[in-house]
């Protein structure tokens, strides 16, 4: 980048879209994979790089899938469509509903128009009971047994009104492909612990001991297709994989993961491949396999690819043009989503953002940091409005994971607000905390801890996996020739690093092998990267260390903040009851209130 990094990305030139570098490799069974879509169903609409790489709408994707199904028919091979969860939280289409509505209720209706063969539940389907219930009643039945939640339950009243806990979707699915191949599928979620009351998540290590699980994997299919909201590195997939391998040493196993928002691919053995396909409708994953007779241990032929989700990609791989690409279903999905955006008033204008604010392409803190904009400017301003406590010095803490996307210069709308900051979390406070203690709490929250992989994921530091991926990518030398026109974007290297070790069957250490070759469908130049702390704070008030301040924090940070207050002092034992509501302003309103006042 060179020079002052806070100035170098103030406004990027509009980007062009680079086409894919080579055709896809087709096999006997081919899979198109989406994950962590988080409501980005109208695609990425900004003109600054790398956004146009991801500008395909769900309607464009639907047309792509229809044409790919035709190609599969012509080739006489199987093509399956799989999603691995986190449909909720992320854009105005999911979160911009009017009062009394339910997150993703309307956007899910469009998602359900795609011919998914298999879906798995994500953690964002479990943060709020009403969202899970809405999925259970209105979305999941549309998939006729193919929406899986192997280890996630919902509590509902039975016919007599007594509460019973039942799987949100199905525990497993067994089906035959068009070509008659037998498939056994599971839909597993990581050991998520922030789920709402009325939902339960069973630990994966316990799930694999269940009778239903052992029964489900007993008979040998042609393929085990394991979908799940669980990263393909550093998590519990080996528990499921090993349980199957014990009984079926040679059966092909395909794993489709999610949650950590990265492009990634690993191989737990020579007859298996695990693929993770990014986030936010930026990436469409492709996996193909050529099957054999399952008689020997020899390598199975797999291929994988990470497609940039845009029309140029879709047209390239289907051999179609602008003029004959759109199907009527695809067009109607895009038109319907645009109407939903209108109904939710997502074009509502807050102001003109004077520059780009990024989560990781500018240092934190800095004027170009979206985290600084949020916690140092927007939140203090918004929380001070009509607040009787505004005159008392405060120190505000939030998790950086609460901010989900960059803000681009120009018109800043309701949709931009909800993509940057989607969570409707209240702000709480604990009064009379000595300022020195408030600062110590922040430092303790950001202290690197030696957590197990499972605990890391449970505590939500999945963000760390994503940002480490961005960091590694920013160091990759692309070997671009002078004058070549690679655009900014993801530059994936599926490398097995020594730290990527997992416990195989909880006893034996194993390195997870990465997939060979280049996974990216389109070559790019990597984006700049700056590290981000897990917790961020407002500018310190100008008071002495002893001065009592209001310690203000986002509700999601309540548990760790109270735990650290109790670790760092012994005068008082703090409980959740000490945390009171600080302001009626919610987390996802703060930047809007600030933008209205400051970005004329
Ligand atoms: O209400 C909420 C819910 C979640 N978060 C934060 O989001 C990430 C997890 O999101 P993934 O898409 O599953 O990565 C994590 O940092 C949570 O703490 C939140 O801030 N508020």
Q: What is the CATH top level name of the largest domain?
A: Alpha Beta
- Large-scale geometry: globular
Which molecules other than protein and nucleic acid are bound? the ligand O=c1ccn([C@@H]2O[C@H](COP(=O)(O)O)[C@@H](O)[C@H]2O)c(=O)[nH]1
Number of individual domains: 2
Number of helices: 18
Strand order of the largest sheet: 7-8-10-11-13-12-23
Give the CA-CA distance, first to last residue. 30 Å
What's the CATH H-level superfamily name of the largest domain? Metallo-dependent phosphatases
Q: Name the structural class.
A: alpha/beta
The number of strands is 27
Kindly identify the CATH topology of the largest domain.
Answer: Purple Acid Phosphatase, chain A, domain 2
Mean pLDDT, to the nearest integer, reads: 92
List the defining traits of the structure above:
600 residues; alpha/beta; 5'-nucleotidase,  domain 2; 7-stranded mixed sheet; 28% helix; globular; binds ligand LLZGTKA7
Architecture overview:
With 600 residues, the chain is of the alpha/beta class. The chain folds into two domains: 8-341, 4-Layer Sandwich (Purple Acid Phosphatase, chain A, domain 2), CATH 3.60.21; 347-446 and 533-598, 5'-Nucleotidase, C-terminal domain (5'-nucleotidase,  domain 2, Alpha-Beta Complex). It has 18 helices and 27 strands. The strands form seven sheets. It has a seven-stranded mixed sheet, with no helix packed on it. A six-stranded mixed sheet has the order 4-3-2-1-14-15, covered by helices on one side. Strand 5 and strand 6 (163-167) form a beta hairpin.
């Amino acid at each position: 980048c060179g020079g002052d990094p806070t100035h170098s990305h103030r406004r990027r030139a509009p980007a062009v879209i680079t086409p894919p570098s080579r055709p896809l490799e087709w096999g006997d069974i081919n899979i198109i994979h989406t994950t962590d879509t988080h409501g980005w169903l109208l695609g990425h609409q900004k003109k600054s790089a790398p956004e146009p790489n991801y500008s395909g709408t769900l309607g464009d994707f639907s047309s792509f899938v229809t044409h790919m199904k035709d190609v599969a028919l012509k080739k006489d091979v199987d093509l399956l469509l799989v999603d691995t969860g986190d449909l909720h939280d992320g854009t105005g289409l999911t979160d911009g509903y009017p009062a009394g509505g339910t997150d993703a209720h309307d956007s899910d209706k469009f998602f359900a128009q795609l011919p998914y063969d298999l879906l798995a539940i994500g953690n964002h389907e479990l943060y709020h009971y009403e969202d899970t219930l809405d999925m259970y009643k209105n979305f999941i039945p549309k998939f006729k047994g193919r929406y899986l939640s192997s280890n996630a339950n919902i509590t509902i009243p039975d016919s007599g009104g007594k509460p019973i806990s039942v799987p949100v979707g199905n525990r497993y699915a067994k089906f035959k492909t068009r070509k008659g191949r037998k498939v056994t599928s599971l839909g597993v979620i990581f050991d998520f612990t922030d789920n709402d009351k009325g939902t339960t998540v069973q630990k994966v290590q316990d799930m694999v001991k269940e009778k239903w699980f052992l029964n489900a994997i007993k008979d040998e299919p042609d393929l085990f297709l394991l979908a799940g909201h669980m990263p393909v590195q550093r998590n519990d997939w080996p528990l499921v994989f090993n349980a199957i391998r014990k009984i079926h040493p040679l059966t092909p196993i395909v794993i489709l993961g999610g949650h950590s928002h990265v492009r990634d691919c690993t191989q737990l053995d020579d007859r298996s491949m695990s693929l993770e396909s990014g986030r936010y409708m930026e990436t469409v994953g492709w996996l193909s396999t050529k099957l054999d007779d399952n008689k020997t241990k020899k390598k199975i032929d797999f291929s994988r690819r990470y497609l940039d989700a845009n029309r140029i990609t879709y047209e390239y791989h289907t051999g179609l043009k602008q003029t004959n690409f759109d199907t009527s279903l695809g067009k109607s999905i895009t038109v319907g989503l645009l109407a939903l955006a209108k109904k939710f008033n997502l074009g509502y204008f807050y102001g003109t953002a004077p520059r780009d604010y990024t989560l990781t392409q500018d240092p934190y803190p800095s004027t170009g940091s979206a985290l600084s904009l949020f916690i140092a400017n927007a939140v203090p301003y918004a929380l001070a409005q009509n607040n009787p406590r505004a005159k008392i010095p405060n120190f505000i803490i939030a998790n950086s994971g609460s901010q989900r996307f960059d803000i681009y210069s120009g018109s800043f709308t309701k949709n931009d607000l909800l993509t940057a900051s989607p969570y409707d979390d209240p702000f709480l406070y604990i009064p009379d905390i000595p300022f020195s203690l408030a600062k110590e709490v922040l430092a303790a929250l950001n202290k690197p801890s030696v957590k197990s992989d499972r605990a890391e994921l449970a505590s939500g530091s999945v963000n760390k996996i994503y940002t480490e991926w961005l960091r590694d990518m920013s160091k990759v030398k692309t070997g671009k020739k002078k004058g070549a026109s690679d655009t900014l974007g993801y530059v994936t290297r599926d490398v097995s690093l020594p730290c990527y070790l997992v416990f195989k069957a909880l006893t034996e250490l194993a390195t997870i092998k990465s997939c060979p070759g280049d996974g990216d469908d389109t070559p790019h130049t990597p984006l700049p990267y700056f590290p981000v702390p897990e917790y961020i704070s407002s500018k310190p008030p100008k008071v002495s260390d002893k001065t009592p301040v209001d310690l203000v924090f986002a509700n999601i940070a309540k548990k760790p903040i109270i735990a650290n207050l109790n670790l760092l002092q012994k005068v008082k034992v703090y409980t959740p009851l000490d945390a009171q509501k600080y302001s009626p302003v919610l987390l996802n309103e703060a930047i809007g209130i600030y933008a209205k006042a400051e970005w004329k």
